[in-house]
């Protein structure tokens, strides 16, 4: 009995996600579902992005968390439009939560919408939020085996941001092994090795976002 | 319609968990449900524990993962009884999985059973595995806000193991803030600050395990 119900929940989610996707595409907006473990650096990446984007991109942010508005507060300091979703215990965002958040976020005129999911390397993978791309943030201290141990989420990623590169010399982390595992599982994913502390590699992430935004704009006829 | 079904799933789980708990108590076995984010260091902690426990404790291990037997392989090197559960995508262990794993694990004569849950700071909190105690492993690179952002799991913990203390000097981590947040949320939890790399603090964790094992043995009349 359980499986059909789960399927119905996912189907209901997909209908709302399709509606969101159509809206984003029509608006020429590049929506990215940013996923990763607790503490991988999702919010730090978004902070760095909005701080250094200048006039290159107009960015809006949806912050998903189980509790607190800590992350939205961090982002709001940079003066970009941001809305916090508190899931009240739920382990992932779903499309209905995003649709509701959009009531409080003016997206017209934006180039990029970054949707930060709940810190979780498992459940968010199952829920389409209408995004154009999924980005997975993973960090060196988590260990070099994460692609092997959490294949579902990495197989869906268009971009994998490997964060905390500044800690490499203090850790036992097999960087070439990580690259190989990702390349074997998902050869289409772009791997971006960055440090949100030193700034290393962030330029490539910004270029990836700009490319996505350009494509979205063109598709949307803007 | 969804909530009653979730409740039934949890109730079914609780029945099996109660049966497991009765069995552990009768056997005088101290069972610990070890939870935490991906890469927090759950397996490293268990490795250190089985390596340094010597004749102090007889330990058995159940390793829960979505995919691979990497963690069980790491533990098996130390010659302790270990069984791998692969959840096949599920984001947490449940009591039925543990019961099934026990078919392949001889627990008579053991003092401690360490059950490593799937790397996830959300979902495992909801599922009783029949354990005597829940331990949450959290690591410095995850950031000092984790207690605030994932309160459910920290509020259930008997022990919180704050790992990767060796990286403290390379991070911005407010240790007194972390202690304060945990003390406010769950004053009964024992906080154990450790490094599985340097070994710092592990003696206190071992003592915590020994105390639990002693209590379990006495309750079980061994």
What is shown here, in short?
Chain A has 222 residues and is α/β, with parallel strands linked by helices.
Descriptive labels:
homodimer; 222 residues; alpha/beta; 8 helices; 18% strand
Large-scale geometry of chain A: globular
Most extensive protein-chain contact, per-chain counts? A-B, 35 and 35 residues
So what's the oligomer here? homodimer
C-alpha end-to-end distance of chain A? 47 Å
Order of SSEs of chain A: HEHEHEHEEHHEHEH
Proportion of beta-strand residues of chain A: 15-25%
Measured as a percent range, the helix fraction of chain A is 40-55%
Structural class of chain A: alpha/beta
The strand count of chain A comes to 7
How are the strands of the largest sheet of chain A arranged? 3-2-4-1-5-6-7
Question: How many helices of chain A in DSSP terms?
Answer: 8
Description:
Two copies of one chain form a homodimer. By secondary structure, the first copy, chain A, is an alpha/beta fold. The first copy, chain A, is 41% helix and 18% strand. In chain A, strands 3-2-4-1-5-6-7 form a seven-stranded parallel β-sheet, sandwiched between helices. In chain A, helix 3 links the parallel strand 2 and strand 3 (82-86). Chains A and B meet through helix 1 and helix 5 of A and helix 1 and helix 5 of B.
Write the layout of secondary structure elements.
The structure is a homodimer of 222-residue chains.
Chain A lengths: L1 H25 L3 E7 L5 H11 L6 E7 L4 H7 L5 E5 L8 H8 L9 E5 L16 E7 L6 H4 L1 H6 L2 E5 L11 H11 L4 E4 L8 H18 L3
Parallel strand pairs in A: 1-4, 1-5, 2-3, 2-4, 5-6, 6-7
């Amino acid at each position: 009995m359980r499986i059909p119900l789960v399927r119905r929940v996912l189907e209901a989610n997909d209908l709302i996600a399709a509606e969101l996707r159509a809206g984003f595409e029509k608006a020429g907006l590049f929506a990215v579902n940013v996923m990763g473990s607790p503490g991988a650096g999702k919010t730090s990446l978004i902070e760095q992005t909005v701080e250094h984007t200048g006039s290159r991109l107009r960015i809006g942010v949806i912050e998903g968390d189980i509790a607190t508005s800590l992350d939205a507060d961090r982002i709001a300091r940079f003066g970009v439009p941001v809305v916090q979703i508190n899931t009240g215990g739920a382990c992932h965002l779903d499309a209905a939560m995003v649709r509701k958040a959009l009531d409080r976020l003016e997206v017209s005129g934006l180039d990029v919408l970054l949707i930060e999911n709940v810190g979780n390397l498992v459940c968010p993978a199952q829920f389409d939020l209408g995004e154009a791309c999924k980005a997975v943030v993973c960090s060196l201290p988590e260990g070099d085996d994460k692609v092997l141990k959490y294949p579902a989420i990495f197989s869906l990623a268009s971009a994998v941001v490997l964060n905390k590169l500044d800690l490499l010399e203090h850790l036992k982390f097999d960087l070439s092994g990580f690259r190989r595992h990702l390349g074997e599982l998902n050869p289409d994913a772009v791997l971006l090795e960055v440090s949100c502390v030193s700034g290393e590699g962030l330029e490539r992430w910004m270029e990836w976002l700009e490319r996505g935004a350009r494509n979205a704009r063109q598709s949307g006829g803007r």
